[in-house]
Each structure stands twice: as C-alpha cells, then as structure tokens.
Design a protein that fits this description.
This is GGDEF domain-containing protein. With about 350 residues, the chain is of the alpha+beta class. It is built from nine helices and six strands, in the order ααααββαβααββαβα.
C-alpha cells in the first residue's frame, strides 16, 4: 500500500511538473505579448495624436515632412513587426483589419495634405479627414486594448493554474516529508528495539554481538565471559503460562542488571540466555560476583511462593578473544546445566 502511494505521489509530481513547465512557458510568452501589446497601444496613440498635430501644422502653413515620415514608419512597423521602434505585429485579425483600413486612409490623408500644400482650397476636407482618421485610430487602439484584455485574462487563468499546481506540489512534498519522518522514526524505533531488549530493560542481542566482536583492550584486561541460562523455564510456561516465564526472565535480568557498571556489561543474548562481559577483575572477584548473583537468587526464591529462579552458569577467564571465550563459557554453562539436572533427578 505504501509503495503504491509513493508511486502515485511520484506520478502526480511528474505530471504536475510537466504541466507547470508548460504553464510557465506560456506565461512567459503571454507576458512578452502583453508587453508588446502595451507598446503597440502606446505607439498607436502616438499616431492618433501625431496626425492631429501634423494637420494643425500643415493647415497653418508649416509643412512637416519629417513628422509625416515618422508616422509613416510607425504605421508600417505596426503592420510588419519590423523596424526601429521594437513594435510587434499583433496576432489578432480584427486589429490587423482595422490597422489596414487606417493605413489606407493614411495614404489618402497624405494625398490631401500634398494637394493642400499647392492649393489651400481643400482645408476643410483635410481637417475633416483628420477627424475621421482620429476616430479610426481610436478604433484600432480599442481593438488592441480588447486583445490585451483577453491575453491578460488568459494570463490570470494560467497564474491560477500555476498556483494550484504549486500548492499541490507543496501538499505532496509535505505529505512525503511527513511520511519520511514517520519512516525515520519507525526505523529508529526498530533499530532501538534491535539494540535494546524492552521486556528486560537490558541490551539486546545485537548489542551483545557488538560487544563480543569489539577487540579486547589489553590495558583493560583480563577479560571474563560469563554465560547464564534459566533452567526449567518450559515447565514453568506449561504449568503457569508464558506470562509467568516472562516474569522470571525479567526478575533474573533485574538481578544481573544491578551488577552492571563501566567494567561489567550484561545483556540478553537469547530467549532465556544472558551474557556478562567483565574486565579489570581478578578471578577471585569474578567468583565473588557470581556468588552475589547466587545469593540474590536465593533471596528472591525465599520471597516467592511459586516461581523459583533456577539457572546454570559457566565462565571463561583470561582468553585471547571474546568470541572464543563465549564458546567455552557456553560449553561450561551446559555442563553446569547437566549437573544441576542430575542433582535434581537424584533428589
């Protein structure tokens, strides 16, 4: 289920990223178009006002060929998209049609201006045509503004889509982060469980194995490996239930745990097996340590009416390596277990 969810997240993320890339590409294009359209509207307004100024000057006997050429160049660039003013040719049919009509009328207006220069008798016609041209330019500006409005709406929609996609990606990323945090926490718990035996509170099997395989430091020697194994645990489980056996394991672990210090390591090696690694102790001190465990067990058994702790132990002192010492201590422990069973049978 988790793997399917992760795969779904990856697919959704990939789709969102692809769509987001397409949206961003279109947004950049639209921004460029909108900026270009703004320049087109601005220069169309220049044509509108410039033509009025041209006619006013011409009808007052001031010819302005340079202004006429300037306006002519802007009109040409608006239609072709090529020229010195960095103007775009808008991809809008209604605008282009009105612009073509404006250009044709501009040619007619220029003809009338040239006629006026040689024969001022057509002044009223020039003025009237300039008014008509002004209104036509207004229509071109209005069409360009409508085109700009439509593109702006599309841009707004794309920005909304972008926000939604980014929000979705953020939600998925947060969900993945939460999942990863839970996974890390779970792995940490599992790792802790592997190193720590929760029922007894002692280091677990992995901790024991790590301690066993750590090279011995001769400065901290001699070392001693002790192996413990509870006896008759199966009988107790069969007679009183596994919970009773768990109690005995926990109580024996407590007895051992009271002896731990910087030179004494105690861990649960297996179901009912425990190890003790001791350093900086003489063999007489080891014997005293084992005697303390025996006495603590006797005190426990005197207080308990039914559950009694019985165990076997074996130790190896002053060996060359802890793994070898463990094997020898284990063998001695089983000899002790056999001897204890034989004594019990004799009784």
């Amino acid at each position: 289920m988790n793997s399917n969810r992760k795969l779904l997240y990856k697919v959704v993320q990939l789709v969102c990223v692809v769509i987001l890339g397409i949206v961003l590409f279109n947004i950049f294009q639209l921004v460029d178009i909108i900026q270009g359209t703004g320049r087109v509207i601005n220069y169309t307004g220049i044509i509108r006002g410039g033509t009025q100024r041209l006619v006013k000057l011409e009808t007052n006997g001031i010819p302005k060929d340079d202004l006429m050429l300037y306006l002519d160049g802007i009109l040409n660039e608006l239609q072709t998209g090529q020229g010195q003013y960095d103007l775009d040719k808008l991809d809008d049919i209604p605008y282009l049609e009105k612009l073509s009509e404006l250009n044709d009328y501009w040619d007619e207006l220029q003809t009338e201006i040239m006629i006026y220069r040689s024969d001022p008798g057509n002044k009223e016609k020039v003025v009237q045509m300039s008014e008509t041209y002004f209104n036509m330019a207004n229509d071109v500006v209005g069409t360009a503004e409508f085109y700009l409005e439509q593109k702006t709406k599309v841009l707004t929609s794309l920005e909304l889509v972008m926000v939604i996609l980014l929000g979705l990606l953020i939600v998925i990323s947060l969900q993945q982060a939460i999942t990863e945090i839970h996974l890390i926490r779970k792995n940490k718990e599992l790792a802790t469980a592997a190193y720590y035996d929760k029922p007894t509170g002692l280091p677990g099997r992995r901790s024991c194995e790590e301690q066993i395989w750590i090279p011995m430091d001769r400065k901290e020697g001699p070392y001693c490996m002790v192996m413990f194994d509870l006896n008759n645990l199966k009988c107790i489980n069969d007679s009183y239930g596994h919970s009773a056996g768990d109690v005995l394991i926990k109580d024996f672990a407590d007895i051992l745990n009271h002896l731990t210090n910087e030179n004494v390591f105690v861990g649960r090696y297996g179901g009912d097996e425990f190890i003790m690694i001791v350093k900086k102790h003489t063999e007489e001190q080891i014997e005293q340590l084992l005697k303390e465990i025996e006495l603590a067990t006797i005190r426990y058994n005197h207080k308990s009416d039914q559950l009694k702790i019985q165990y076997a132990a074996g130790y190896e002192y002053g060996g060359d390596s802890l793994p070898q010492m463990l094997e020898k201590a284990d063998a001695k422990m089983y000899l002790n277990k056999t001897a204890v069973k034989a004594d019990t049978n004799d009784l």
